[in-house]
Design brief:
This protein is mostly beta strands and 663 residues long. It is 1% helix and 67% strand. The chain is built from one helix and 42 strands.
């Protein structure tokens, strides 16, 4: 005999409906599928109608198949059409799944049917509705129902009620006339709602808090998906000092064009200053064909300060640079060609504003990949570019055409010792060299490099390098006679048994004369101690030969990494007037399965005051809701925030091992 098994999945809930054609027996029947999988059916009364090919069972009917158990008051099965109908106190379980209802109609062959007065449970989801109809194996329509992840099913802490829900199994769910409830209080109505079941994105987020700059605030984000290719967010910031800010972010995917991109905008009319401020950001990328793509970005705003002052809930626009660019790139296994235009503004802390730092418009560049030349062991590349660019620190633009080939080879000396040699030629024609030379001309320079690597023992190695750049084009007032670069650099590494130390420095050879400590680069030293996979420490030093002193130093130690309780401590030093010496510490631990604390502090040892501290608490308040709140005080500027997280869509941090906060 043949047995058919099928599945319904409702918003992550598993609804399994299966039946088989059976031979009639009076009180019990046991048949086998084509794969010898037995089906057991028992009931108070069972009857087989041979003429119509039907089986009837009633009274405490139980059907068992593998780990699936179906219970009902009545069951009717047609062995011809493979239609099954069950009534009364229906209960279907499969491992952790439970489905209950009053009436089921289902076709085993076509895997279509309907269920009336349905309740479904499959952790973490619970669904209840008037009916479900399934037109094909991949789709289901739920009528007048709700879904929740709360363990309290009769009066859940939250639920999403809809007139109609359409489900594409394992892919997406969309609903119409959806109302979000907190308890019995409706808080949001959406005429249409889309949820991608492959992601855990939270549909609604609320972030209350307080800061000096914005006052008390509530930052809200509604995340939606019009379809799989169009996710977006609507942002609303309510601030007692600054007023109301509005934001919108829309992402998109264009499968037919192999393109992706996003649009972001933010607007506010400041209540305290009366300034109307806004910004727009656009980004796009398309792979037109296999070896050709287009990328672009545009930042456009009312004033540059907007990016420094405001951030929305999910999409911070706090940034150290503002950039707009467009580029078309052609790739080949041996070369690439890029046609581009680019502009970047960087934040200047002295001027408290953004300043133009780089602009190329346009630029076309050819770059070959590194390739061996005629089996000689020598490797070469070629770069060529034509560009018009802004000269930083000036008020003019320069046009330039350049060609730059490179040739390199590595020689094996003896075991553990190698010599690398390279020569780089830079030739270009420009209409202006620098602010001191308004006219342009031709420039030619070459750079040579030698690098000797020595692995003396298993634990000790050294590296000595020399780079030299000679410009053949003469410039006025040139104290180095065309030598743009002439430096020796050295690195020493010692590594053994959980300990490593690396020291680097360099020395400028351009000036002829006696030894001068002013020609030394700063000496950098990095030391790492690894005591175990859970405990380690590090020390970083920066020594200036010119000042004859350490100008910065940092040391830190971390204990019990990746454990429920872990902590860290450190010292930070920076030379100045006066010197800055800070001590810092941090700890993260779970107080219980529903409460976690993160603590951190920075203390000024010179002035004897707490410079900065941070407290964060995460609490699971119910099985479906969690809260994380944080308070930060830094040099008198403070902020307090609270986040409400719906655990159905986003795993709480309490579900993960806490990590210590570090500066």
């Amino acid at each position: 005999m043949k047995t058919t098994r099928s599945r319904f999945i409702i918003s992550g809930l598993l609804l399994l409906v299966f039946f088989n054609s059976l031979k009639a027996q009076k009180e019990s029947s046991k048949v086998e599928t084509g794969k010898k999988t037995p089906i057991d059916c028992v009931g108070d009364y069972m009857e087989y109608d041979e003429a119509n090919g039907a089986i009837y069972a009633r009274g405490n009917v139980i059907v068992k198949y593998k780990e699936i158990i179906l219970k009902a008051d009545k069951i009717r099965l047609s062995t011809k059409s493979e239609d099954i109908e069950a009534e009364g106190n229906i209960s279907l379980t499969d491992k952790d799944s439970l489905v209950t209802g009053k009436h089921i109609k289902y076709n085993l062959k076509l895997q279509v049917g309907s269920v009336d007065d349905i309740e479904c449970t499959n952790k973490p989801w619970f669904f209840k509705g008037e009916s479900i109809d399934r037109p094909d194996p991949k789709n289901a329509n739920i009528n007048n129902g709700f879904a929740t992840t709360c363990n309290i099913h009769e009066h859940p802490h939250y639920r999403m009620a809809s007139r109609r829900i359409h489900l594409l199994v394992g892919e997406k769910v969309e609903s119409w006339d959806t109302v979000f409830y907190l308890g019995d209080i409706p808080v949001l109505y959406l005429p249409y709602y889309f949820k991608d079941l492959k992601t855990n994105e939270t549909p609604l987020s609320l972030r209350p808090g307080f800061s000096n700059y914005e006052g008390r605030y509530l930052k809200c984000a509604y995340n939606y998906r019009l379809n799989e290719q169009l996710p977006g967010s609507l942002l609303l910031d309510l601030m007692t000092v600054k007023g109301v800010g509005y934001g919108w972010r829309q992402s998109y995917t264009l499968p037919e064009l192999n393109g992706t991109g996003s649009f972001y905008t933010y607007y506010i009319n400041e209540a305290d200053s009366g300034h109307e401020r806004w910004n727009i950001n656009l980004e796009h990328r398309s792979d037109i064909v296999k070896d050709l793509n287009i990328v672009g970005r545009l930042d456009y705003f009312s004033d540059l300060g907007l990016l420094k002052d405001y951030y929305s809930y999910y999409y911070p626009v706090l940034t150290s640079n503002v950039r707009a660019y467009a580029a078309v790139t052609k790739y080949d296994p041996s070369y690439s060609i890029v046609l581009s235009a680019d502009r970047q503004d960087d934040w200047n802390s002295f001027k408290q504003n953004y300043i133009l730092t780089a602009e190329t418009m346009p630029s076309i560049k050819l770059q070959t990949n590194t390739a061996e030349l005629f089996g000689s062991g020598f490797y070469g590349t070629l770069s060529a570019e034509a560009v018009r660019s802004y000269v930083f620190g000036s008020d003019y633009y320069a046009s330039k055409v350049s060609v730059s080939p490179t040739l390199s080879k590595t020689f094996s000396l003896v075991t553990g010792h190698t010599l690398g040699a390279a020569i780089y030629v830079n030739s270009f024609l420009t209409d202006r060299f620098n602010p001191a030379l308004p006219s342009g001309g031709f420039s030619f320079s070459y750079t040579t490099g030698l690098n000797i690597y020595n692995k003396w023992t298993q634990y000790f190695s050294t590296e000595l390098g020399h780079s030299f750049t000679q410009r053949l084009t003469s410039l006025p007032a040139d104290p180095y006679n065309g030598v743009d670069f002439n430096k020796v650099s050295a690195r020493m590494t010692l590594a053994m048994n959980g300990f490593s130390n690396t020291t680097t420095t360099g020395y400028d050879l351009r000036l002829v004369g006696p030894f001068d400590k002013a020609r030394f680069d700063n000496l950098y030293n990095q030391t790492l101690f690894v005591f175990s996979d859970k405990t380690d420490a590090n020390l970083n030093l920066n020594y200036s030969f010119i000042a004859s002193r350490i100008i910065s130093a940092d040391t830190a130690a971390y204990f019990n990494r990746n454990e429920p309780f872990n902590f860290g401590a450190g010292l930070n030093f920076a030379a100045g007037t006066p010197d800055i010496v800070d001590a810092n510490g941090s700890a993260a631990f779970n107080v219980s399965s529903d409460l976690r604390l993160d603590l951190s502090v920075r203390y000024d040892l010179n002035k004897n005051f707490i410079k900065e501290y941070r407290v964060k608490a995460l609490v699971n308040i119910t099985d479906c809701w969690s809260i994380d709140g944080s308070y930060l005080n830094s040099l008198g500027t403070y902020a307090f925030t609270i986040n409400f997280n719906l655990r159905a869509f986003k795993a709480t941090e309490l579900d993960q091992v806490p990590k210590a906060f570090t500066y």
